[in-house]
Amino acid sequence: MVARTGLYTLLAANVGVVTFFFVQAGFGASNALIVLGRLAGLYGALLMAFQLLLVARLPWFDRRIGMDRLTSWHRWVGFSLLWMLLAHAVFIVFGYAQASSMGPVDQLVDLAETIEGVLRAVVALALIIVVGVVSARYARRRLAYETWHFIHLYTYLAVVLAFTHQVAVGTTFTASSTAKTYWYILWGVALTSVFVGRLALPLWRNLRHRLRVTAVVPESDHVVSIYISGRDLDRLPARAGQFFLWRFLTKGRWWQANPFSLSAAPDGTQLRLTAKIAGDGTAALRHLKVGTRVFAEGPYGAFTTLHRTQPDTLLIAGGVGITPVRALLEELHGHVVLIYRVATDRDAVLYDELAQLAHAKGAQLHLVTGPAAPDKLAPHELARLVPDVADRDVYVCGPPGMTTAVLRTLRELGVPKPQIHAERFSLAG
């Protein structure tokens, strides 16, 4: 809660600072459209810097907020940024066109040819539009993760182009050295956060731990577990319930990063991930050779025991969403109930392990099978299985549809929000 409040406060404070510098610089424009366009551009650039902070994957924020929630914020901020920059472009072009009596297209061409940085801004906006289109739900579901990730990287080029454009021609910054200094500091913090979280820290950890594949174990026709060892793994700050972005450094896969949860609690000597075969990239996992070098980014996620509030726990997993839940079961103390929702018995990955672990820990294990309708985790069904559900911490991980339905059920059963911890399988499974 402190981390979330801190991020909101940080954004609100910077909105206030940017607005102050904008007003201090004076409007100095021939019409209201240009004024609105400049203000929209400032807010858009501020959102872009905030967006960088959200995707920096800084451990302090991630452990307290969670990659799942940060990714959700990133999505909403991204679309807000897109609309803000579109508003900036439209207002500026039509504002100058009104002042010069030129058509909007001719005015845009004239601005690009005569004013420094405008052409860079046009290219930046085009890149952001492309990223926005491929990030829409319809397109995202039809793109391979690797393709979507590669296109998304062009956002960084757009950031550089937009920043140089704004510093070069933004009246707020050309009119005040104080405003320009503030803007450089703001963007310096944002870019440094990305450099540390996305590059420096992963490189340092991988050089230190030198991860390698030690075993590849098929769990079923469509699921495989990968065992990984390395140096000083007892110093790797990984917890049960977290995930990594894994790169297996083979000829055809070194550039592909996929998010997979730990399916066993870290023990200081090895890590284990369990993945469902869902495409060419994951299918290749079956053929990894022992000794393959691994580059891992992480650990990520707040789906851990760090946020427990009650002595007893309910774990609810769907499909391969069982992987982080299985790791949590290994680490949890107190009385635990685990509900595993699958279509058929054959889909119950790692079930034998779960049964043995539940028996050893005195936990209750319920395997719930059958089609999605009727809902076998509806309020009356869940209350029958776990009568004291409102007095437990509840961890939910599974496909987005199942997770959404279970969260709705928990609200109807009166489970307090601080006791609910969810990870959507679409991100971390």
TrEMBL record:
Q: What coarse category fits the chief subcellular location reported for this protein?
A: membrane
The name under which this protein is listed is: Oxidoreductase
Query: Which cofactors, by name?
Result: FAD
Q: Entry's SUPFAM superfamilies? A: Ferredoxin reductase-like, C-terminal NADP-linked domain, Riboflavin synthase domain-like
A Pfam family that the UniProt record links to this protein: NAD_binding_1
* Keyword set includes Transmembrane helix: yes
- List UniProt keywords, sorted A-Z: 2Fe-2S, FAD, Flavoprotein, Iron, Iron-sulfur, Membrane, Metal-binding, Oxidoreductase, Transmembrane, Transmembrane helix
What CDD domains does the entry give? FNR_like_3
Membrane-topology annotation of the record? Multi-pass membrane protein
**Transmembrane segment boundaries:** 7-27, 33-55, 76-97, 117-139, 151-169, 181-201
What GO molecular function annotations does the UniProt record carry, in alphabetical order?
Answer: 2 iron, 2 sulfur cluster binding; flavin adenine dinucleotide binding; metal ion binding; oxidoreductase activity
Q: Where in the cell is it found?
A: Membrane
Q: Where is the FAD-binding FR-type domain?
A: 206-306
Q: Which organism is it from?
A: Streptomyces sporangiiformans
GO cellular component terms attached to this protein's record: membrane
